[in-house]
Write a structure and sequence with these properties.
Blueprint (H helix, E strand, L loop, with lengths): L1 H36 L5 E8 L9 E10 L2 E2 L13 E16 L2 E16 H7 L4 E3 L4 E5 L2 H9 L1
Parallel strand pairs: 2-4, 3-4
Antiparallel strand pairs: 1-2, 4-5, 5-6, 5-7
Length: about 160
């Protein structure tokens, strides 16, 4: 009985360690993908929260928060690629971008919350890429300055 308890305890802590490493890997992959979309400029920081103690092991993520500043790009870092296959879920994909330029338009701040995201698990595990396969309707708020608004209207 004594050895069984030791084996269960070691197994439990091994699962917790593996779970934590998956969270760190997901955050690094998110940072990398956003940096790639923004040509490696500026600062990016991602935070991943799994749903429950073993959410990462069950491919069930509560939220991914991506904070970025001083970036410039012609496109946003994520696209929707509808397709079947093995999928994981993200309850909230939140984007918080400050002082960035999107398609030549300076934007002071953008906050978006994309709910009920489904992602391709194969790409996430083997290629460290977040390929979105489905998403619900979310909200976005964009704040631009007066000079940015004038530049947008003149286009």
């Amino acid at each position: 009985m004594d050895d069984t308890l030791k084996v269960l305890t070691v197994g439990f802590f091994a699962l917790l360690t593996f779970h934590a490493s998956l969270e760190r890997r997901a955050a690094r992959a998110s940072d990398s993908q956003v940096n790639e979309a923004f040509n490696g400029m500026g600062e990016v920081h991602s935070r991943v929260q799994s749903r429950g103690m073993f959410g990462m092991l069950a491919n069930d993520i509560w939220s991914i928060d991506i904070n970025s500043s001083h970036q410039s790009s012609d496109r946003l870092p994520f696209y929707l690629h509808p397709r079947g296959g093995w999928k994981g879920s993200i309850r909230h994909l939140r984007l918080h971008f400050t002082d960035f330029t999107l398609a030549g338009l300076p934007i002071d701040r953008m906050d978006a919350d994309i709910p009920f995201v489904k992602y391709d698990l194969g790409h996430a595990l083997y290629k460290d890429r977040l390929f979105l396969r489905g998403a619900g309707e979310g909200s976005a708020v964009v704040k631009i300055g007066e000079s940015s608004l004038q530049a947008f209207i003149q286009r």
